[in-house]
Amino acid sequence: MIEVFEPIIGDEEIDAVVAALKRGEISGSFGESLPAFEQEFANYVGCEYGVAVSSGSTALHIAVAAAGLGEGDEVLVSSSTNIATALGVIHNNAIPVPVDSENITWNLDLDLVESLITDKTKAIIPVHLYGHPVDMDRLMEIARKHNLLVIEDCAESHGATCRGRMTGSFGDMSCFSFYANKVITTGEGGMVTTNNKELAERLRLLRNLAFTKPRFWHEEAGFNFRMTGYQAAMGLAQFRKIDQIVTEKRRLAQTYNRFLQDVEGIQLPHEAEWARNVYWMYAIVVQPEFGMTRDALVDHLRASGIDTRTFFCPMNQQPCLQSRPGFRAVPCPVADSLWENGLYLPSTYTLSESVIKDIADVVRQPA
Ligand SMILES: Cc1ncc(COP(=O)(O)O)c(C=O)c1O
Prior knowledge:
Elements: H1 11-22, H2 33-45, E1 49-53, H3 56-66, E2 74-78, H4 83-90, E3 95-99, H5 110-116, E4 121-125, H6 136-145, E5 149-153, E6 161-162, E7 165-166, E8 173-177, E9 190-194, H7 197-207, H8 229-239, H9 242-260, E10 266-267, E11 275-276, E12 282-286, H10 294-303, E13 309-310, H11 319-322, H12 333-341, E14 342-345, H13 353-364
Parallel strand pairs: 2-3, 2-4, 4-5, 5-8
Antiparallel strand pairs: 1-9, 6-7, 6-11, 8-9, 10-12, 12-14, 13-14
Helix pairs in contact: 1-8, 2-8, 3-4, 3-7, 9-13
């Protein structure tokens, strides 16, 4: 089976983790790797501060908490996303309001945002889906006009840019994931980046059980969302390869594009002229002219030894959100259709041109 993604872990990562273990960097409280990873990654993103945490999900959770969002507050979120985006909101007792997608980049439709704002709306969490950036210049203009806080969900967009500026450098806070299939990985892990010193301090406080002075005296309820030192050491080793990884991901996408561009009824991933897409996963959408449903294509690929994943089930359809008090049933027909018709193909960035051609041939010639 050609897996949908396989992490590439080299001797550099293994040596870095072993060295960190030998230095005693076991927990998330001691050692040099954590602050070094935080600073280097934050610099890359274009932010002053980085706060490493245990996952992309806890990054979102703690960012919403640090922003002081809570009961009764509405937070606009991309409807087509991983559930973690909305969980960060509901675990703080706030209400996620799904924003439908647009058809070309599959990101949230900025034309819809203003119509969804109420006097309860406090923030917006745009997701740079599958590595294509949201038009952050336009989003920030809307957010500033309505006094909304912006938390970028960059779980899939390390290295993606909007008009030459890194995703993660626009919002008040930005949340990255270093899960096994992400652009760079620490196995499990995440980071919040920000240029706001006060928010960085709050994030550090909340990450570490909100310890204050005297020790073991707690004014507020924090979390243990710490990343371990040896994970940070792995993150540093991965980070040294990030430019090469992004280049390889773009090569993979361009190779697929070349072999699939003339297949009728298959929508390929977009790259707007103002954008650098990092193609976290190589995603396509099956259109009616293709003559086969998405599910039939998935089965056909599987029968040929090729693994795939469907697009995300949108937030407007999630039972765990619909059952929450105050949840608004916002229709999201485009996100619904992406969930029914979208899939991503094997996206390990070391796949050779001939394997990519074989996969494209299976897509092209349904049985
Ligand atoms: C858009 C998005 N947000 C958040 C997350 C959560 O990250 P993690 O798995 O590290 O908790 C993911 C992926 O896993 C994601 O794809």
